[in-house]
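Review box. Two proteins, two foldings.
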Amino acid sequence: MAINIYGTCSGSSGSKYDIWLNVKQNSQSIEDNKSNVTVKLLLKRNDGYSASAYNLNEGSNSVVLKVGGKDRVNKNLTVDTRNNVTVTLATWTGDVAHTDDGSLSLAVSGSFSMGGTSLSGGSVSGSFNCTDIPRASALTLSKSSLNPLDSVGATLSVASDSFSHKIKWSLGDSSVTHSLSAGVTKDAFTVPLSWSEEITNAKSETISVTLATYKGTKKIGSKAYSLKLIIPATEEFLPDFNLITERIDNAVPLEIGEYVKGKSQIRLNIENLNLKHGAKASGYIAKVGSSSKTTLPAAFDLTKSGEISVSVTVKDSRGFSVTKTETINVLNYSAPTVSVNSLYRCDENGNKTTSGTNLLCALKINCSSLNDKNIPIITYKYKKAEDGIYSGEIPINESVSVLGNGEFLNNSSYILAFKITDSVTTDTDFIEVLVPSADIPFNIRKGGKGASFGCYSEKENELTVAWDLNVKGDLVYENVGIETSLLVTDKRGIVRYLPCLELVVVRLRFTANQSVSAGSSHIIATFEKTPTLFTPVTVSINTGSEKIGQGGIKSETGQLVINSDKTIEAGDYIYVSGVYFAYRN
């Protein structure tokens, strides 16, 4: 590769002459980072006139040739341009050094002076770009990603076998440098396990790879590469721990030794937590059935029975999570209950008799067995029906038992209170049962102020009937008053009180002698005695049996009251009907 660079000449005939530099790249040394060049300074008359300038006296002429900023030729000489010859004023061949990156823009210049002629001299300058010399070597990696303890191969493409290299593998604060002698073009790198500690908040990170090229001890270039280090979800890196389950018995006796629904709790925790290679814990999930909590330790109520899955999940700062699961068995449990299937008077041997002074009791007992470790505790106490003080509690050991030791007198009624509890709960089930006095056809109370049929008389001023009562006539309350403000007349109907059924039946009809406006309330009648009543009265008018309102009997005053939603016209029939459940006063 060669080029010419032209300049200008001076003197009265200077324009008739050409001066130029011829620069030629002869060869290159990659190892030395140099090029060999030849530079010539040339002169020639440009119009073809043969009688051109000359001066054969060396002392009158001089020439300077500079290459790369240095004087390569500086001398006196003879100059003869006659006969159209091309005069070589100066020439230089030699090595020039490239820059570290292998490039070179070579500065060249030349000048001459000549005495005694119309050509007094000339000069030329410029630059020559040498071919770039390859410097830094290239690297090819066998993988783009890898795991800790995996290896990656590296193959070098070098410009010269005399180059040596250094490959630096780095991640965070960790690095390894491999030195490769001249002629070595292969390398391999195994990622140390410890490098995973540079990645604690992610599952991957970039390894930087730098290839530096040297000639001797001089670094002549470098190139950068990268590959990804991936932390795999393997046992080596996943968090590990032991799941700890603790039964909280609360009120459950230790000897039962089981989880009990609604009573026991379970506490979940972990121990021996191992977070691998620098990872930190970032979260926990404790779970029992469908319930979960995010803190440890975590206690849970047990609201279901049977096999229940419990687990703890640990998540680390890399985003890995591990769940440990166990299954527990929860025994079904409900509070104990007791009911009386039958309760009869009997003799001391349990033979049923209406005049017995003992009681034959058959109980229905519901108690969760908890694997036959939960024993119900049943007691009863009693009092005369008219007394207010119970006896002390007496244990019952069987579901069918003879109660008493002849203390249940046959001329008295008794109330028995049964209670059941168990070893698990403090709650109790409590029921009361009335045992009547013994059967007797007729009895007059001592003193003559009470009587009874079918049982003993136990209450002053009361007639007690223990049998079914068939009443052929009406039982009507006395002194039924009429509210005059409604001008009710022509009252007909019944009020029948059936104590054996504890209810009152009302069937009354009135006639309104004047109109009554809607939205008003009126007292229809007042009864001398009134049980506590609950069922509302239904009020209707005979024309189409249209409902006009509602009402009821006030137990405090004995007043039968209606509330009219519509206008009642004079002459309308008003029907008051209802069945009222009552408690005897």
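Next protein.
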Amino acid sequence: MAATSARKAGSGRHAGAPEGERPSRLVRVLIPSLLIVIWFAVAGVGGPYFGRVDEVASNDQASFLPESADATQVSERFVDFVGDSQIPAIIIFDADSPLDESTLTSLSDAVASLADLEGVNDVSPLIPSEDGLAAQAFMPLSTDAEIGDLVETARDSLRDDLPEDITSHITGPAGFTADLTAAFAGIDGLLLLVTFGVVLVILLAVYRAILLPLLVLTTSLFALCAALLTNWWLAKAEILTLSGQTQGILFILVIGATTDYSLLYTSRYAEELRRNTSRHAATFAAIRGVVEPVLASGGTVIAGLLCLLLSDLASNQSLGPVASVGIVFAMLAALTLLPAMLYLLGRTAFWPRRPRFDPERSNEAQMESGPYALAGRLIAKRPRTAWIVCALLLAAGAAFVPTLRADGVPASEFVLGFSDARDGQAVLAEHFPDGSGDPANVLVDEGRLQEAADILLASDGVSSVSVLAADSPSGSAPVTTDGIQPLGPPGTPAPEPTVDAGQVLLQTTLTDAGDSPEAENTVRDLRADLGELALVGGTTAVAIDTKDTSIRDRNLIIPVVLVVILIILILLLRSVVAPVLLVLTTVLSFGTALGTAALVFTHILELPGADPSVPLYGFVFLVALGIDYNIFLMTRVREEALHHGTRVGILRGLSVTGGVITSAGIVLAATFAALAVLPILFLLQLAFIVAFGVLLDTFVVRTVLVPALTYDIGPAIWWPKRLHVDEFGRRGISDEEPVGEEVTPRRLEPSELHR
């Protein structure tokens, strides 16, 4: 009888909703259909842009530096001396036996033929090594050319005509750029395929349904299409910068975030379908239940990402708005497209496990049974022991953070696996001065040329110095302590250096490879010795300025992100104690993830180190995304506490959100782990830190540490607000009523749950 009455009360509408509030059938079908059509149109336009990102993307590290950096100033002035912007490529031949004259002639002809390639500015004469086993040539490429394609074409052209006992490589900055471009080539294909495949498998296991996982993946794909379309045009208008690294992170972030928000919505929608016979009532109740945590979660991530605008590196600055655009569309898709599709399909979307209308039990069974209800009961027995043990274990992992070597890695280590440029650099170092072909550029006033040259030549890390000279056959002239040297027989006058705006450009060949720590030390020493006399640029200087800027950004942005997220949580939870504790647990979790990464990178994977931006990116994503799960949990705890009291609300909140948070955490960890399929050191390290950290948040922090800590503190968690029961038996959180003892909750009628 009770069940019959309940069905009558809820039949055709949300419990307690007047019949007159229901819109017409036409409107109820038209609005979701229109939303779906709009999203299909956006996806149809944005889809083709997956293959066009390289039209607006840039992977030039020098372009990411602030204009105030010495390397940037020298790079901008370099064009004034050589006529256009160039990136040097070094061609290196290696033989098993000494190269004879005929072989050198044929190799010279092969090198000279490359000058006909579009984008090749010039090719230098072939320079044999002193041991006769190798030869090199310099090939400056226009930065307006497609460097990756141009270098690969040149490599293929050289290999076609080589004798069997001779190998060729193209290295230098252009060679490494080409290898990096090739490594990013799998973003549109392999990365998306792996990501969607992994997510599909997880969703099939979570939902145990056929149609629902496809709807969630469709939502994620359409959100990604919209985000990519928007960012492409923003990059086209030069409002922001896209790089292969930023593109990969955007793909993963949008898919992971959209799937997480979709999991939250589908879980609440299924819960409401058990309370309502009407799809209309269930849809609006579900949207009301998730809109606050989704908007708060997405807003927190966006706020954290936009803190990257404080960075001096253009690559970091661009990631903030690029990823924020992705999060905006992730939220929009999860709150409009997915509800529209589920509204039209109703319970059919969950087939074969359709949620049945059962207002008597609603989700009470889930709150009283299952692994998270059991975890809650165990926590309630010894909450203090639980959170102290968790905190100690996390602190033990965080203790290894100082062992993480995040002070930069050589450019030759950026690409994992095979790298022709890395192999070529090894050959070059074996037969020529290590810094050959990749000089440090020194900009100095014409009248102080010799003074600067003497300081450079006095350094043990400098092999030779030359000055750019347009009237020299080679384009430059050697400089010694005796001045500029002639390039001909005795009596030949020395070439006149090229002068622009009263300055000349010295090119300094280092004794060590340009991307080595030794070369970086040399350039730092040269800058200190030259002082205000000259500016030092070049590839090594770019790496130094990028590293120093990254460290400055990391030290500035991390505290700002914490403050911003703390403010958002305070506004969301209307509390101070709870937000502070949530931020502290997230920071502790990040420290554990970073400490574990230090052990894995050094002792298991034996990686050469990490870029300074790895901890920064890991922090922004882990803290912002980790707070997501805090928001999912605590907003539901607060909702339950209003009806049942704080401690009971904690257990009920854990029980009802545990499954969806775990599913969301596994999906997000899997999507970030997919970044490891790209052979890029930075992405591999970021993938491990974020994936491990998310799983740690999911299974330890959100399941044990936060519930145990809040349960132990009790009602004081809402300070300065206070949980109270008014004269009508209604619970609320207020700063006016005194804190009383928690009242044993009574079982509420279904209609009361939505008052």
